[in-house]
């Protein structure tokens, strides 16, 4: 039996970034537990790797905005950039999509309206007859989720953190002063448990006998296909969220943007969804997506209000969950928010300046 000052459960970007922030804040004997033999095997390793200002619900947008400078500061620390510019082009091809674009997308702060002609100039593969209206987000980027995860991992280890892989938490019980965690061949006592287990977070809350958050995992599929891409093409997204496409090296990354509800697990791509992505992108472009190089799927996990959940669910038992489709682009600010909330410290000024309000993320809002 061993003891820890804090145990973070989950070795994706959420767990790794929060563990690094807690260790940097001076929490003693921090331990991170990951069920799989390696870290970042689930959603974190399967994203579209985009950073898009204006993406998501209001509180999520605040975290995306607050993460921008923090990405740069992390890049300086690491000597490696975690963001590379790739503007976003929102495309409305039908009257319904044009209504959605005008009502929901163009009013967002970083989105600038483009004429259809400008949209085609910025993405020459777009068929002129397939664009009625368009929006542009200039300060969007490709992110480097695995590089970011590795940087947080190095910081955690350098601050004395211990990482245990192939270490699934299979039982949890309160001890009066903290929690006892059961692992298959071992046990661990700790003052504070942080559940950052993505789609599995509600299952862990159930193990602890704590109220659930109502998290739902949704499968989303990505395919990498051969097509005539240009390296500096934008990240193009349909205004109705029915497809997206962007260059991925010499190939094209496409998704049908589906949201198929699933139980937590190892999501697999569905052939029909891959075919839909190709068909929808082919319908609006001259890209002629051809054979599929590879495809994968991952689970995007949302709370009922589609906003991140950060805070204590029971004494000594906290959650950082419900990152949805924004767990990479919000990671730097979300990890800083979690560390300050869990340690009862003052919110950093940069987060406050961007409108990050801890109460908007607290689990009690879901009661
Ligand atoms: C197709 C797709 C595209 C996306 N595109 C973007 C994008 O462009 N930009 C963006 O910001 N986000 C994007 N996302 C979302 C982003 O990837 C997620 O929000 C983020 O990776 C979630 O990280 P996480 O650490 O919460 O979850 P995960 O990476 O799933 O990590 C949870 C970990 O908990 C572990 N675990 C579970 N149960 C236990 C247990 N009992 N004991 C120990 N460990 C346990 C799991 O094994 C897992 O490793 C996308 C997601 C998908 C699927």
Protein described:
The chain is of the alpha+beta class. 29% of the residues lie in helices and 29% in strands. It has two domains: 2-68 and 145-214 and 304-366, 3-Layer(bba) Sandwich (FAD/NAD(P)-binding domain); 88-138 and 216-302, D-Amino Acid Oxidase, Chain A, domain 2 (2-Layer Sandwich), CATH 3.30.9.10. It has nine helices and 20 strands. The strands form three sheets. Strands 5, 6, 7, 13, 14, 15, 16, 17 and 18 form a nine-stranded mixed sheet that branches. Strands 1, 2, 9, 10, 11, 12, 19 and 20 form an eight-stranded mixed sheet that branches. A three-stranded antiparallel sheet has the order 3-8-4, covered by helices on one side. The protein is elongated and about 65 Å long. The protein starts with a strand and ends in a 14-residue tail after the last helix. Flavin-adenine dinucleotide binds next to helix 1, strand 13 and strand 18.
Secondary structure: elements and pairs:
Layout: E1 2-9, H1 13-24, E2 30-33, E3 50-51, H2 58-78, E4 83-85, E5 88-92, H3 95-105, E6 111-114, H4 116-122, E7 133-137, E8 141-143, H5 145-158, E9 162-164, E10 171-174, E11 179-183, E12 186-195, H6 201-208, E13 216-225, E14 235-238, E15 244-248, E16 251-255, E17 260-262, H7 271-284, E18 292-302, E19 309-314, E20 317-321, H8 331-343, H9 349-353
Parallel strand pairs: 1-2, 1-12, 2-9, 5-14, 12-20
Antiparallel strand pairs: 3-8, 4-8, 5-7, 6-7, 10-11, 11-12, 13-16, 13-17, 13-18, 14-15, 15-16, 19-20
Bound molecules: flavin-adenine dinucleotide.
The site of flavin-adenine dinucleotide has 39 residues, from helix 1, strand 13 and strand 18.
């Amino acid at each position: 039996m061993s003891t820890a000052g804090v145990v973070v459960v989950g070795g994706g970007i959420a767990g790794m970034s929060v563990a690094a922030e807690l260790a940097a804040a001076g929490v003693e004997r921090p331990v991170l537990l990951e069920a799989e033999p390696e870290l970042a095997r689930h959603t974190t390793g399967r994203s579209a790797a985009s950073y898009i200002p204006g993406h998501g619900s209001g509180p999520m947008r605040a975290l995306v905005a607050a993460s921008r400078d923090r990405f740069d500061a992390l890049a300086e620390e690491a000597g490696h950039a975690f963001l590379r510019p790739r503007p976003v082009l929102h495309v409305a091809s039908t009257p319904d999509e044009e209504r959605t674009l005008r009502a929901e997308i163009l009013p967002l702060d970083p989105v600038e309206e483009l004429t259809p002609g400008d949209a085609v100039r910025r993405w020459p593969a777009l068929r002129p007859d397939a664009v009625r209206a368009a929006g542009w987000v200039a300060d969007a980027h490709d992110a480097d989720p695995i590089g970011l995860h590795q940087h947080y991992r190095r910081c955690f280890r350098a601050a004395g953190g211990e990482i245990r892989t192939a270490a699934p938490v299979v039982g949890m019980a309160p001890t009066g002063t903290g929690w006892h965690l059961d692992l298959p061949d071992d046990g661990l006592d700790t003052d504070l448990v942080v559940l950052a287990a993505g789609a599995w977070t509600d299952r862990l809350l159930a193990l602890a006998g704590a109220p659930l958050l109502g998290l739902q995992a949704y499968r989303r599929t990505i395919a990498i296909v051969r097509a005539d891409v240009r390296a500096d093409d934008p990240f193009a997204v349909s205004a109705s969220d029915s497809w997206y496409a962007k260059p991925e090296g010499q190939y094209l990354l496409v998704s049908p943007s589906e949201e198929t509800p699933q139980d937590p697990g190892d999501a697999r791509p569905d052939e029909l969804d891959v075919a839909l992505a190709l068909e929808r992108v082919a319908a609006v472009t001259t890209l002629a997506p051809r054979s599929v190089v590879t495809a994968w799927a991952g689970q995007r996990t949302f709370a009922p209000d589609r906003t991140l959940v950060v805070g204590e669910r029971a004494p000594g038992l906290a959650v950082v969950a419900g990152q949805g489709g924004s767990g990479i682009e919000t990671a730097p600010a979300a990890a800083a928010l979690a560390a300050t909330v869990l340690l009862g410290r003052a919110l950093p000024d940069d987060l406050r300046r961007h409108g990050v309000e801890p109460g908007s993320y607290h689990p009690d809002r879901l009661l």
